[in-house]
Protein backbone atom coordinates (compact mmCIF):
# COMPACT_ATOMS: atom_id res chain seq x y z
CA UNK A 1 0.00 0.00 0.00
CA UNK A 2 1.10 3.54 -0.58
CA UNK A 3 2.90 5.19 2.30
CA UNK A 4 4.40 8.53 3.11
CA UNK A 5 7.91 8.40 4.50
CA UNK A 6 9.22 11.35 6.46
CA UNK A 7 12.86 12.06 7.16
CA UNK A 8 14.48 12.64 9.47
CA UNK A 9 12.35 11.14 12.25
CA UNK A 10 13.76 13.67 14.68
CA UNK A 11 15.94 16.73 14.46
CA UNK A 12 17.68 18.95 17.00
CA UNK A 13 19.03 22.29 15.78
CA UNK A 14 20.51 25.38 17.33
CA UNK A 15 18.36 28.48 17.20
CA UNK A 16 19.05 30.47 14.05
CA UNK A 17 19.96 27.46 11.92
CA UNK A 18 18.14 26.42 8.78
CA UNK A 19 16.65 22.96 8.43
CA UNK A 20 14.80 20.77 5.94
CA UNK A 21 12.25 18.00 6.46
CA UNK A 22 11.34 15.63 3.65
CA UNK A 23 8.21 13.71 2.79
CA UNK A 24 8.41 11.01 0.11
CA UNK A 25 5.88 8.79 -1.63
CA UNK A 26 6.39 5.90 -4.01
CA UNK A 27 3.47 7.09 -6.12
CA UNK A 28 2.24 10.37 -7.55
CA UNK A 29 0.42 12.58 -5.08
CA UNK A 30 -2.56 14.74 -5.97
CA UNK A 31 -2.22 17.09 -3.04
CA UNK A 32 0.32 17.39 -0.27
CA UNK A 33 -0.48 18.90 3.12
CA UNK A 34 1.90 20.04 5.84
CA UNK A 35 0.80 20.25 9.46
CA UNK A 36 2.51 21.20 12.71
CA UNK A 37 1.63 19.64 16.06
CA UNK A 38 2.72 20.69 19.51
CA UNK A 39 2.92 17.78 21.94
CA UNK A 40 -0.54 16.89 23.28
CA UNK A 41 -2.32 19.27 20.92
CA UNK A 42 -4.10 19.15 17.61
CA UNK A 43 -2.62 19.58 14.16
CA UNK A 44 -2.27 23.08 12.76
CA UNK A 45 -2.61 23.32 8.98
CA UNK A 46 0.41 25.03 7.41
CA UNK A 47 0.22 24.67 3.64
CA UNK A 48 -1.19 22.62 0.78
CA UNK A 49 0.65 22.00 -2.50
CA UNK A 50 -0.94 20.62 -5.62
CA UNK A 51 1.10 21.32 -8.72
CA UNK A 52 4.44 19.84 -9.62
CA UNK A 53 7.17 22.36 -8.87
CA UNK A 54 4.88 24.42 -6.65
CA UNK A 55 6.39 26.36 -3.77
CA UNK A 56 4.63 28.20 -0.95
CA UNK A 57 5.91 30.22 1.97
CA UNK A 58 4.46 31.31 5.26
CA UNK A 59 6.65 33.46 7.46
CA UNK A 60 9.95 31.55 7.67
CA UNK A 61 8.58 28.23 6.44
CA UNK A 62 8.76 27.23 2.77
CA UNK A 63 7.29 24.07 1.30
CA UNK A 64 7.99 22.67 -2.16
CA UNK A 65 6.51 19.84 -4.20
CA UNK A 66 8.82 18.28 -6.78
CA UNK A 67 7.97 18.12 -10.48
CA UNK A 68 7.04 14.44 -10.33
CA UNK A 69 4.77 15.12 -7.32
CA UNK A 70 6.34 12.35 -5.26
CA UNK A 71 8.42 14.33 -2.82
CA UNK A 72 7.90 17.44 -0.76
CA UNK A 73 10.30 19.36 1.42
CA UNK A 74 9.62 21.76 4.26
CA UNK A 75 12.37 24.28 4.88
CA UNK A 76 12.63 26.49 7.94
CA UNK A 77 14.92 29.49 7.76
CA UNK A 78 16.57 30.90 10.89
CA UNK A 79 14.78 28.51 13.24
CA UNK A 80 13.33 29.73 16.52
CA UNK A 81 12.16 27.88 19.64
CA UNK A 82 8.58 28.57 18.50
CA UNK A 83 9.20 26.27 15.51
CA UNK A 84 9.63 23.27 17.81
CA UNK A 85 7.04 20.52 17.49
CA UNK A 86 6.10 17.62 15.25
CA UNK A 87 5.73 18.24 11.54
CA UNK A 88 3.46 15.85 9.66
CA UNK A 89 2.82 15.56 5.97
CA UNK A 90 -0.45 14.27 4.62
CA UNK A 91 -1.39 13.53 1.05
CA UNK A 92 -4.29 13.08 -1.31
CA UNK A 93 -3.63 9.82 -3.15
CA UNK A 94 -6.10 10.70 -5.86
CA UNK A 95 -7.77 7.30 -5.63
CA UNK A 96 -11.48 6.76 -6.08
CA UNK A 97 -13.84 7.00 -3.15
CA UNK A 98 -14.37 9.71 -0.61
CA UNK A 99 -11.48 8.90 1.70
CA UNK A 100 -8.16 9.01 -0.09
CA UNK A 101 -5.63 10.32 2.38
CA UNK A 102 -2.47 9.10 4.02
CA UNK A 103 -0.29 10.69 6.67
CA UNK A 104 3.37 10.39 7.49
CA UNK A 105 4.52 9.47 10.99
CA UNK A 106 5.99 12.90 11.64
CA UNK A 107 9.33 14.60 12.22
CA UNK A 108 10.00 15.79 15.75
CA UNK A 109 11.87 19.10 15.78
CA UNK A 110 13.63 20.55 18.79
CA UNK A 111 15.22 24.01 18.64
CA UNK A 112 17.85 24.84 21.22
CA UNK A 113 17.92 28.42 22.44
CA UNK B 1 -14.09 32.48 15.92
CA UNK B 2 -14.59 29.55 13.57
CA UNK B 3 -13.01 26.27 14.52
CA UNK B 4 -13.27 22.79 15.87
CA UNK B 5 -13.68 22.04 19.54
CA UNK B 6 -13.18 18.73 21.29
CA UNK B 7 -14.11 17.87 24.83
CA UNK B 8 -13.00 16.84 27.28
CA UNK B 9 -9.25 17.44 26.90
CA UNK B 10 -8.50 14.52 29.23
CA UNK B 11 -10.73 11.52 29.87
CA UNK B 12 -10.27 8.54 32.13
CA UNK B 13 -12.17 5.33 31.62
CA UNK B 14 -12.54 2.28 33.76
CA UNK B 15 -12.44 -1.16 32.24
CA UNK B 16 -15.82 -2.12 30.78
CA UNK B 17 -17.12 1.45 30.47
CA UNK B 18 -18.29 3.19 27.35
CA UNK B 19 -17.20 6.81 26.96
CA UNK B 20 -18.18 9.48 24.44
CA UNK B 21 -15.82 12.08 23.01
CA UNK B 22 -17.35 15.27 21.73
CA UNK B 23 -16.43 17.05 18.49
CA UNK B 24 -18.14 20.24 17.33
CA UNK B 25 -17.32 22.51 14.38
CA UNK B 26 -18.75 25.85 13.32
CA UNK B 27 -16.93 25.99 9.97
CA UNK B 28 -20.00 24.83 8.05
CA UNK B 29 -17.99 21.85 6.80
CA UNK B 30 -19.81 18.85 5.39
CA UNK B 31 -17.15 16.25 6.17
CA UNK B 32 -15.88 15.20 9.57
CA UNK B 33 -13.31 12.62 10.67
CA UNK B 34 -12.06 10.80 13.74
CA UNK B 35 -8.44 9.68 14.06
CA UNK B 36 -6.46 7.89 16.66
CA UNK B 37 -2.81 8.81 17.26
CA UNK B 38 -0.42 6.52 19.14
CA UNK B 39 3.23 7.29 19.95
CA UNK B 40 5.48 6.74 16.96
CA UNK B 41 2.57 6.06 14.64
CA UNK B 42 0.80 8.19 12.12
CA UNK B 43 -2.85 9.05 12.22
CA UNK B 44 -5.20 6.12 11.86
CA UNK B 45 -8.72 6.74 10.61
CA UNK B 46 -11.53 5.44 12.81
CA UNK B 47 -14.65 6.81 11.10
CA UNK B 48 -15.53 9.60 8.76
CA UNK B 49 -18.75 11.27 7.64
CA UNK B 50 -19.35 13.00 4.34
CA UNK B 51 -22.73 14.37 5.24
CA UNK B 52 -25.35 14.39 7.97
CA UNK B 53 -26.84 10.98 8.78
CA UNK B 54 -24.11 9.17 6.91
CA UNK B 55 -20.76 7.79 8.05
CA UNK B 56 -18.19 5.26 6.89
CA UNK B 57 -15.81 2.96 8.75
CA UNK B 58 -12.15 3.69 8.59
CA UNK B 59 -9.20 1.36 9.08
CA UNK B 60 -9.72 0.74 12.81
CA UNK B 61 -13.48 1.07 13.44
CA UNK B 62 -13.82 -2.00 15.66
CA UNK B 63 -14.81 -1.06 19.20
CA UNK B 64 -15.92 2.43 18.20
CA UNK B 65 -19.23 3.96 17.15
CA UNK B 66 -20.26 7.37 15.83
CA UNK B 67 -23.34 9.36 14.94
CA UNK B 68 -23.89 12.38 12.71
CA UNK B 69 -27.31 13.79 13.51
CA UNK B 70 -26.25 17.41 13.05
CA UNK B 71 -23.82 18.98 10.62
CA UNK B 72 -21.87 20.58 13.45
CA UNK B 73 -21.44 17.52 15.63
CA UNK B 74 -19.70 14.15 15.25
CA UNK B 75 -19.40 12.38 18.62
CA UNK B 76 -17.27 9.25 19.00
CA UNK B 77 -18.14 6.52 21.48
CA UNK B 78 -15.36 4.24 22.65
CA UNK B 79 -17.05 1.02 23.71
CA UNK B 80 -15.90 -1.67 26.08
CA UNK B 81 -15.21 -3.81 23.01
CA UNK B 82 -12.19 -1.63 22.20
CA UNK B 83 -9.37 -3.57 23.84
CA UNK B 84 -6.69 -0.92 23.82
CA UNK B 85 -8.38 2.47 23.90
CA UNK B 86 -5.64 4.49 25.60
CA UNK B 87 -4.59 7.00 22.94
CA UNK B 88 -4.86 10.57 21.70
CA UNK B 89 -8.01 11.13 19.66
CA UNK B 90 -8.24 13.81 16.99
CA UNK B 91 -11.31 15.10 15.24
CA UNK B 92 -11.07 16.92 11.92
CA UNK B 93 -13.36 18.49 9.36
CA UNK B 94 -13.15 19.57 5.74
CA UNK B 95 -15.42 21.41 3.33
CA UNK B 96 -15.97 18.19 1.42
CA UNK B 97 -14.69 14.63 1.26
CA UNK B 98 -13.83 13.26 -2.14
CA UNK B 99 -13.66 16.68 -3.77
CA UNK B 100 -10.48 18.46 -4.73
CA UNK B 101 -7.33 18.59 -2.62
CA UNK B 102 -8.33 22.13 -1.74
CA UNK B 103 -11.88 21.41 -0.55
CA UNK B 104 -10.66 18.28 1.22
CA UNK B 105 -8.07 20.08 3.34
CA UNK B 106 -8.65 18.84 6.87
CA UNK B 107 -8.64 21.11 9.90
CA UNK B 108 -8.11 19.53 13.28
CA UNK B 109 -9.42 20.01 16.78
CA UNK B 110 -7.19 20.17 19.88
CA UNK B 111 -7.61 16.47 20.71
CA UNK B 112 -8.78 14.35 23.63
CA UNK B 113 -6.39 12.13 25.56
CA UNK B 114 -8.16 8.99 26.75
CA UNK B 115 -6.60 6.83 29.45
CA UNK B 116 -7.94 3.51 30.66
CA UNK B 117 -7.48 2.95 34.37
Which range best describes the helical content of chain B: under 10%, 10-25%, 25-40%, 40-55%, 55-70% or over 70%?
under 10%
Overall number of strands of chain B: 11
User: Tell me about the biggest sheet of chain B?
Assistant: 7 strands, mixed
H/E series of chain A, N to C? EEEEEEEEEEE
Distance between the termini of chain B: 35 Å
How many whole angstroms does the radius of gyration of chain A measure? 14 Å
Structural class of chain B: mainly beta
Number of helices of chain A: 0
Query: Beta-strand percentage of chain B?
Result: over 45%
* Quaternary assembly: heterodimer
Q: How large a portion of the residues of chain A is in β-strands, by DSSP E?
A: over 45%
What's the count of strands of chain A? 11
Query: In terms of structural class, how would the helical and strand content of chain A be classed?
Result: mainly beta
Along the chain, the helix and strand elements of chain B come as EEEEEEEEEEE
User: Biggest β-sheet of chain A, characterized?
Assistant: 6 strands, mixed
Radius of gyration of chain B: 13 Å
Low-pLDDT runs of chain B: none
Amino acid sequence: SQELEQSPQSLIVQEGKNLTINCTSSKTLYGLYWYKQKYGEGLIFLMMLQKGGEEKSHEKITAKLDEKKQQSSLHITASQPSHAGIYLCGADKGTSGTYKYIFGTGTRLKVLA
Amino acid sequence: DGGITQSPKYLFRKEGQNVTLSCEQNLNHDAMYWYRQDPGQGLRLIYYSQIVNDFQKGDIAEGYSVSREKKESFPLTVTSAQKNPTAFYLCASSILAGGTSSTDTQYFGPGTRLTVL
